[in-house]
Amino acid sequence: MTKSGxxxxxxxxxxxxxxxxxxxxxxHRDLEADQATRDAVADVGGLREVLSVRASLDVMPMRGGxxxxxxxxxxxxxxxxxxxxxxxxxxxxxxxDLIFAPPDQIPEMAALVDEAEETDExxxxxxxxxxxxxxDLGRLATDALYLGVNPYPRKPDAVFEPLVEAPDxxxxxxxxxxxxxxxxxxxxxxxxxxK
Length: 195
Known about the structure:
By secondary structure, the protein is α+β, with helices and mostly antiparallel strands. 21% of the residues lie in helices and 29% in strands. A 5-stranded mixed β-sheet has the order 2-3-4-5-6, with helices on one face. A two-stranded antiparallel ribbon has the order 1-7. Mean pLDDT is 83; it is low at 1-7.
């Protein structure tokens, strides 16, 4: 339970890798989510469905206990077109390129990122923390998938056509003045006495 009293949903795809077991030559993993995992990824991500999701990731050790994780996540998801409200499918292909570091190195490395932002050089992303000696490749793949989701999916042939209403002849800037218009008096009408 979180501090606010709300329950958090667990990570829908877990593929933990213990950093102590990663060889010096690195580690390659090809991952494919099963149906139950795809259903959980869809539920947590607010998607209609996840038809397939695969990840191909390389984990390479670096100096100082850091690790470089690079690869791709490819997925096919079911969404709803925002124009037609018809079901549709979308493909996702997201690159992953992250550095993981021990938690005690994060503040120091974040300061280096802040310094780089003050120069004209490309600013590197701050490292992700290695939590309890684990890098979770499933969570990493899921996060990349969610980043690739178009929040406003639209079918290629869908065209938004605004509702066109026939103009109301009484709806114009001078309609209020028309109500104030004095009707002309008919010929032969008598004036009241005393006026």
